[in-house]
From TrEMBL:
Cellular component terms per the entry's GO annotation: cytoplasm
Record keywords, A-Z: Amino-acid biosynthesis, Histidine biosynthesis, Hydrolase
Polymerase/histidinol phosphatase N-terminal domain span: 6-68
Species of the source: Fervidobacterium nodosum (strain ATCC 35602 / DSM 5306 / Rt17-B1)
Family, as annotated: Belongs to the PHP hydrolase family. HisK subfamily.
Catalytic activity: L-histidinol phosphate + H2O = L-histidinol + phosphate
GO biological process: L-histidine biosynthetic process
Protein name, as recorded: Histidinol-phosphatase
Enzyme Commission identifier(s): 3.1.3.15
Keyword Cell inner membrane annotated: no
Domain of life: Bacteria
InterPro entries: Histidinol_P_phosphatase_HisJ, PHP_dom, Pol/His_phosphatase_N, Pol/histidinol_Pase-like
Length: 240
């Protein structure tokens, strides 16, 4: 079995929507030969149900297993930002609020809120699953090219602030592309973006590492040569 470089988006039972223990995750990652993992549990500022991490306990747990301390920080851009993100080694900034029904119009509103968020908030490492609402569109319709001006603005801010873009491979099993889509990854590259992390968004043990190899293949075909991993510092790892 080939090695998998990294899975930097995994949920444990510190998230209300996962039952996996940290030990089980580590065991699964060993079995699947995943070299670098980060557990990124939900800390959703606008939803108390998804905001149950006691940060000190969580940090101690991750440190016990010599894992970087990761979090998927969900923000709607409205609720007060009362979290000290310096407590984490890897902050995945996520925007989860999607208007229904899911149409190009709700995609647009999602992007406008996301643009506002990245303009106002800078204390994160990677921007999670950029075209996230596509997962919930009945036909998984891609984001219209008319929305690419807004996407360009978002990506330019990510790049100029020195952030990373997450390639979230979980929708590959749904419609063959990651979040963000192949076209958006092309755009990121054309704007000079090169910093990429990759993650499965696994909420179950069986999904850990799933789709990462396909995601790496897509990146490689687009001309990306590296993804980033965190040891004591962030470093590039060659993907081909
Ligand atoms: Zn998410
Ligand atoms: Zn997630």
């Amino acid at each position: 079995m080939r090695k998998i470089i990294a899975d930097y988006h995994i949920h444990s039972n510190y998230s209300p929507d996962s039952n996996s223990t940290i030990e089980e995750i580590l065991e699964t990652a060993r079995e699947k030969r995943i070299e670098h993992i980060i557990i990124t549990d939900h800390y959703e500022l606008a939803d108390s149900h998804f905001n149950v991490i006691d940060i000190e306990t969580y940090r101690k747990e991750m440190e016990k297993y010599s894992l970087p301390v990761g979090v998927e920080l969900g923000w709607d851009g409205i609720k007060e930002l009362n979290i000290d993100t310096t407590k984490f080694d890897y902050v995945l900034l996520a925007h989860h609020y999607v208007e229904e029904p899911i149409t190009q119009e709700s995609y647009k509103n999602y992007l406008l809120r996301l643009l506002d968020i990245v303009k106002r908030f800078d204390s994160y490492h990677a921007l999670a699953h950029l075209d996230f609402p596509r997962r919930y569109h009945p036909q998984r319709e891609e984001f219209s090219k008319e929305l690419y001006d807004i996407i360009t603005e978002i990506l330019k801010i990510v790049i100029s602030n020195g952030k990373m873009l997450e390639v979230n491979v979980s929708p590959i099993k749904l419609y063959g592309e990651p979040n963000p889509s192949i076209d958006i990854l092309k755009l990121y590259k054309s704007l000079g973006g090169r910093n990429i992390t990759i993650g499965s968004d696994a909420h179950k043990l069986e999904d850990i590492g799933k789709g990462i190899e396909k995601g790496i293949e897509i990146l490689s075909e687009l001309g990306y040569n590296y993804i980033l991993v965190l040891d004591t510092e962030w470093r590039e790892v060659k993907i081909k």
